Amino acid sequence: MLFNKIEFAYFFGIVYVLYWFVFSKNLKQQNAVVLIASFFFFACFDWRFLFLLFFTIVLDFFIAHKIHNSQWHKKRWLWASISINLSFLGIFKYYNFFIENVAKIGNHFGWNHQEWALKIILPVGISFYTFHGLSYVIDVYNGKIKPVDNFVNYSLFVSFFPLLVAGPIERATHLLPQIQTKRNFDYAKSVDGLRQILWGLVKKIVIADNCAVYVNSIFEAPNQYSGSSLFVGCLLFSFQIYGDFSGYSDIALGTARMLGFELFQNFSFPYFSKSSSEFWKRWHISLSSWFRDYVYIPLGGSRGSKFQSIRNVLIVFLLSGFWHGANFTFLFWGFLHVLFFLPSFVSADKQTRILEVNTNSAISTMTDFLKMTSTFLMVSFAWIFFRSSSISVAFHYVDTLFSASLFQFPEVVPKTVIGYLLLFICIEWMGRNDLYAIEKLGLQWNKALRLGFYYLLTYLILYYYGADFQFLYFQF
Fold this sequence. Notes:
Blueprint: H1 6-21, H2 27-46, H3 50-69, H4 74-108, H5 126-141, H6 151-159, H7 161-164, H8 172-179, H9 187-220, H10 227-258, H11 276-282, H12 285-296, H13 306-324, H14 328-347, H15 366-387, H16 391-401, H17 415-430, H18 447-464
Helix pairs in contact: 1-2, 2-6, 3-4, 3-5, 3-6, 4-5, 6-8, 9-10, 9-17, 9-18, 10-15, 10-16, 12-13, 13-14, 14-15
C-alpha cells in the first residue's frame, strides 16, 4: 500500500474516522486503532514478515526492562539487543553481498569455494524499525528514558504506519510521550497536515516520477548517450531522489499531524546548502542525527585528536552509505561525501562540528550563489554512484560524462520536466524557512487565488497519477 496510491487514501480515511470520531474519548482505544492499522499497513506489503516485526518489538520491549532492572548485567543485555537486531538486518540485507564477495576472492586465489547465496527477500522497512528499537534500548541503557510498561504503546512507537517503511527514524524520547498523552482533535492541525501531504504528493508524482522516466532510460544504458545527456540524467536523478524521499517524508509528517502527532523533520531544503557539512544538516536529518548520537559520539566524536575525529567521520559516512544497500556503490558514495565534508569539518571548531538543523539560508552575494551551485553539483556527482548498478558502470558513466561529448547538445531535453523543476525550485525557495515549502505560502492571498493554487497542484497530481513508481527508499 503506497502513499501515492488511492488505496492509501481509502485506508487512511477509515483510520481517521475511527480514530477521531469513534474512539476519540479513550486513549487506549485510539492507540489500539492505530496499532492495528499499522500492522495491517505493513502486512499489505508482505504479511509473512509480520512475525519478524513482532519479534523485534517483543525482543526490545523485554530487554529494555531487563536493562532497567539489572544491576550487573546491563551491558550484556544491551549487546544482546544490538547483536540480535543487527544479525537480522545483516542476514536479510547483507548476507548475499558478503557471500558473493568471499566467493570472488576465493576464486581469485584459486580456492575451491562454493557460493552459499540464498534467495532472500528484503523485508520492507527493516532498516527503519530496527533503528527505532535500537535507539529505544540504548536510551534506556543510558538512562535517558524509562522502559515502557504498556506493550501496546511501545509496539505503536516501533510500528507507527506513517514512518514504518521509510522513516523518518523516530526516537522514543520524542514519540513515546506523544503516544502516552491524550490527543484532542485539532482542525487547524488536520488542515496543515493535509497541506503537507499535498506538497509531498507533488514532489513524488509531479517531480520525482516525471524525472524517473528519463533517469531510468539514461542510467540503464549510459553508453548510448553523450556526456551532455549524462549530465542531464545526473541532475534529474538529484531531483528524483529528493522529490521521492522528501515527498514520502512530507506525506508521513502530514499524516501523523492529522492524527495529532509531530514527527521529526527529515529534510530542510538540502539543495540550498552552501557546503557539504550544511547539506548533511539538511538531508535525511533523522538518519544523520541517529548516527551522530549512537555511533559518532560513542566513538569519541570530536573530543579526541584530529586524526580520531576524522576516523569517526569516515566510519559514520561509510556506515551511512552501507546502510542504504549492500553494494560497493553505496560505500563509494559515502566515501565521496567524506571527501566533500572533511574540509569544512577540519576547519570548524568543535562546537560546530556536530550536525544540527539550520534552515536560515539566503543568497546575499554572488559568492553565496556559487557556493550553493558548487555544493549541488558535488552532491549530484556523488548521486551517480548511488544510482548506478555497479562501481564499473558508475566509473564508465563518469568517464563518458567528462568526455568531449559533454559540450554537445544533449539528446535528452525534457522541456516539460524542466519547466516543472523551475517552478518547484521557486516555490521551495520561497518557503525555505518553513517546515515545508507551502506551509505558509498562499495563506495571505485572497481565498480565490489560494484555492486556485491548491486546485492547480491537485490537478497536476491527478494528471500524472498512475505511474508505477515505488518510493526509492523502500529498498533500503
